[in-house]
């Protein structure tokens, strides 16, 4: 039987790819320009790591909990926002210039992120059955992406590094905002994992085809999803609700 909801594939997400560049660059930035005994080093490194790891964890959690996936992606977004402030503070406290968003330098960095991924970039290598050659391809792809930003991220001037990372974090946050909006939309339209699992179970019990396990909406004809009433006299009872809600309020009793 196929999974109710797919999971994984996070290495193909632009959010994860960008967060990986940010994490690597932050590690080397702190190593070169900050006192290793400073608490800021731990905060910045952990913030960058949290941005990357929570995207991956959320992707893996998608198979069992859409709410957990949403929560973890939001944690990644918050971690990168905190890291953004750390880099802005670094520039401000040292009276170093911060690039204007429309400056030539900022536009040059942002242009790298707009380029399409190479067609031979490896896909998700998170499966434990992956062999060393596949893992090596993942490392090659990560190194290739970092190399595109290396003129800025490996620069001797800390201001250039910090400004480039600010540009990258803004790009990652914009992509995460879109990812979160898409996850929220899917959750509203299709229901969470528990609703989809209940739908599949009911369809199995009734002997219906998995391809079309739900009735059409009596008002607009769109597919319906299994929902549970939260309040009122029917609290706790399940019913079919239109996926176009709140535009359409069609329901079918079970």
DSSP summary: helix tally = 7
**Distance from first to last alpha carbon:** 25 Å
Largest sheet: 3 strands, antiparallel
Strand proportion, as a percent range, falls in 5-15%
Counting structural domains, the number is 2
**Which structural class do you get from the secondary structure elements?**
mainly alpha
Assembly type? single chain
* Overall pLDDT score: 83
Question: Over all CA atoms, what is the radius of gyration?
Answer: 23 Å
Described by the principal axes of the CA atoms, the overall outline is: elongated
Helix content: 55-70%
Name the helix and strand elements from N-terminus to C-terminus, one letter apiece: HHHHHHHEEE
Q: What is the strand tally? A: 3
Residue windows where pLDDT falls under 50 for at least 5 positions = 118-131, 208-212
Strands ordered across the widest β-sheet: 1-2-3
Commentary on this structure:
By secondary structure, the protein is mainly α. It has two domains: 10-190, no CATH class; 193-253, no CATH class. 59% of the residues lie in helices and 5% in strands. It has seven helices and three strands. It has helices spanning 14-33, 39-61, 66-93, 104-114, 132-153, 158-190, 193-206; strands spanning 224-228, 238-242, 251-253. A three-stranded antiparallel β-sheet has the order 1-2-3. Helix 1 runs antiparallel to helix 2 and helix 1 packs antiparallel against helix 6 (158-190). The longest helix has 33 residues, at 158-190. The radius of gyration is 23 Å and the shape is elongated. The two termini are 25 Å apart. The model is unreliable at 118-131 and 208-212 (pLDDT under 50).
